[in-house]
């Protein structure tokens, strides 16, 4: 199992993928037959399949938190793996079927998704900044 959080602009796609049915339709070449990680289960847990990413043919993305995950094992529980990889995803945390979400819950999930994005963005900036400071210090020490 591996995961990452690419910061692509997926807003347009997201609007379509908020529909569980559209997510289900995205699994056009899903390599797994296991019940646990069937197309239906994956779509139910917020995932849709991403295509054309260097032979990673089980690469999925959660529309509610932007996490990218691949390397699924037949015994994986999508919700457990989802929460492990993306502990802030409110959709994964609520463990509710999308049909049972209230409008308020749905709106809160989308709101939290933006917070997750901001948090990840901040972390990236912080990492870049400390890397640059280290480089700078190395140069200064040589002077
Ligand atoms: Zn998620």
UniProtKB/TrEMBL annotation:
It comes from the Eukaryota. It holds the Pfam family BIR. Keywords: Metal-binding, Zinc. Gene3D superfamilies: Inhibitor Of Apoptosis Protein (2mihbC-IAP-1), Chain A (1.10.1170.10). PANTHER family: DETERIN. This is Baculoviral IAP repeat-containing protein 5. The lineage of its organism: Eukaryota, Metazoa, Ecdysozoa, Arthropoda, Chelicerata.
